[in-house]
C-alpha cells in the first residue's frame, strides 16, 4: 500500500524476504518504529490491522481498519459513558477495495465505503482523524479529532515469530493527547483537555487461521500508561507487556496474569505481575460484543470499557498510584 505521508527513520529493517520468510534481523523490540512491514508471499494469509481507541472521561470511540487480504473490514463503535448509550457499525469490502493500510505505523491510512468513512492523515508531530457514518444506530456520526505525537513519547514496536512459519509485527502507541469533538445525531461531544487520549494498535503479519488473544490497555495524565496481552505471543519468546512513565516505555520481564473475578459480564478483573511491578484492578462500565462473519471466517470479540485502579512500580522501584485511569480489556476468538 502507498501513503502520502511518512515520518519513519531510515534505513528501515525489512520484516521479511522476497518469499515472505521472516528475517532474523527484524525479531525483537524497540521503543521507536524501525521495521518496514511490507508483506511478500503467503497470498490470502497476509493481515494488516489498524485499531484506534479514543478515551475521554465522558465517552469512548473505537475504530478498526483491516485488510485481511481477501476482505476489507471497517468498524466504528461509540460509547457514552454517562448514559450508557452505545452505537456500532461494521462494513465489509471484497478484496479490501477502498482499504488503504500502509507498511509503516506512522503513515496515513483510510477505509472508504458509502456507509462508513475512516481517515487518518499523518503530519509531522500530529495526525488528523476523521470519521463519518450516515447511519449508526439510526443516527449520523461525524468525528474530527486532532491527535498529538509528542517527541518524547515512546511506543512498543515488536516483531515475533509464530507457529507454522507465521509472524507478527506490531506497534503499540498509547497516551497520545487528543483534542476535538464528534457529533452523534443532535448531540455534541468534546474531548476534555489533558484527560483525552488516543491509542493505536498497528499489526502486520502472517497470522494463524485460528487465533485467540486478550489485550488490556490504559492511559492517564503524566505520561502513565500500560499495555498488556496474553494468548497471542505465548510461545514466541516475546512479550508486548509494557509500562510508560513520563512517556518512556519499559518492557515487563516478569509474567503477567490477567484474571476475571467471576463470569458476570461486568465482573472486575485483576492484572498482576510476578515481580509486583503491576497490581491493578480493572472495573468495566460497559461492554461491546462484535462478531463480524463471512462464510467460514469470523472474529468474535468482547471489549470491555472501564477504569483501572491500583499501583505500579516505577523505573527505580517507586510506587506509582493508578486512580480511575480509563482503558479497556478485550478478548477475541478469530478464524481468518
Summarize the structure.
This is DUF2804 domain-containing protein. It holds the Pfam family DUF2804. The protein has 336 residues and is an all-beta fold.
Can you characterise this structure?
By secondary structure, this protein is mainly beta. It has one domain. It is 0% helix and 61% strand. Strands 2, 4, 5, 6, 7, 8, 9, 10, 11, 12, 13, 14, 15 and 16 form a 14-stranded antiparallel sheet that branches. Strands 17, 18, 19, 20, 21, 22, 23, 24, 25 and 26 form a ten-stranded antiparallel sheet that branches. A two-stranded parallel sheet has the order 1-3.
Label this structure with key terms.
336 residues; single chain; DUF2804; disordered N terminus; DUF2804 domain-containing protein; mainly beta; 61% strand
The string of secondary-structure elements, in order, is: EEEEEEEEEEEEEEEEEEEEEEEEEE
Helix content: under 10%
Distance between the termini: 21 Å
How many discrete domains?
1
Class of secondary structure makeup: mainly beta
Strand content: over 45%
| Number of H/I helices | 0
Spans of at least 5 consecutive residues whose pLDDT stays below 50 are: 1-8
Count of distinct strands = 26
Give the overall shape, derived from the CA principal axes.
Answer: globular
Global Rg: 19 Å
Q: Average pLDDT value?
A: 93
Q: Tell me about the biggest sheet?
A: 14 strands, antiparallel
Protein name: DUF2804 domain-containing protein
InterPro entries: DUF2804
Amino acid at each position: 500500500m502507498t501513503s502520502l505521508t511518512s515520518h519513519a527513520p531510515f534505513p528501515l529493517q525489512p520484516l521479511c524476504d522476497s518469499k515472505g520468510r521472516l528475517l532474523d534481523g527484524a525479531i525483537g523490540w524497540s521503543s521507536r518504529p524501525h521495521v518496514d512491514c511490507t508483506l511478500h508471499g503467503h497470498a490470502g494469509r497476509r493481515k494488516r490491522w489498524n485499531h484506534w481507541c479514543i478515551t475521554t472521561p465522558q465517552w469512548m470511540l473505537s475504530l478498526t481498519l483491516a485488510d485481511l487480504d481477501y476482505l476489507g473490514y471497517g468498524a466504528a463503535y461509540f460509547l457514552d459513558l454517562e448514559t450508557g448509550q452505545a452505537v456500532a457499525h461494521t462494513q465489509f469490502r471484497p478484496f479490501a477495495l477502498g482499504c488503504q493500510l500502509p507498511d509503516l505505523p506512522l503513515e496515513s491510512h483510510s477505509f472508504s465505503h458509502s456507509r462508513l468513512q475512516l481517515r487518518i492523515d499523518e503530519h509531522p508531530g500530529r495526525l488528523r482523524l476523521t470519521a463519518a457514518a450516515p447511519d449508526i444506530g439510526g443516527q449520523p456520526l461525524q468525528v474530527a479529532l486532532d491527535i498529538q505525537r509528542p517527541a518524547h513519547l515512546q511506543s512498543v514496536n515488536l516483531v515475533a515469530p509464530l507457529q507454522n512459519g507465521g509472524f507478527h509485527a506490531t506497534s503499540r502507541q498509547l497516551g497520545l493527547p487528543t483534542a476535538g469533538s464528534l457529533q452523534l445525531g443532535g448531540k455534541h461531544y468534546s474531548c476534555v483537555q489533558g484527560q483525552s487520549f488516543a491509542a493505536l494498535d498497528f499489526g502486520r503479519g502472517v497470522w494463524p487461521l485460528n487465533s485467540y488473544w486478550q489485550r488490556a490497555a490504559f492511559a492517564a495524565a503524566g505520561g502513565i500508561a500500560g499495555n498488556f496481552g496474553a494468548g497471542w505471543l505465548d510461545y514466541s519468546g516475546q512479550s508486548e507487556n509494557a509500562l510508560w512513565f513520563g512517556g518512556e516505555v519499559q518492557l515487563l520481564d516478569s509474567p503477567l496474569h490477567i484474571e476475571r473475578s467471576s463470569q458476570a459480564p461486568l465482573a472486575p478483573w485483576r492484572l498482576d505481575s510476578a515481580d509486583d511491578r503491576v497490581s491493578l484492578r480493572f472495573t468495566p462500565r460497559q461492554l461491546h460484543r462484535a462478531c463480524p462473519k463471512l462464510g467460514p471466517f469470523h472474529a468474535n470479540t468482547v471489549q470491555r470499557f472501564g477504569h483501572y485502579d491500583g499501583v505500579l512500580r516505577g523505573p527505580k522501584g517507586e510506587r506509582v498510584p493508578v486512580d480511575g485511569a480509563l482503558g479497556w480489556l478485550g478478548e477475541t476468538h478469530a478464524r481468518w
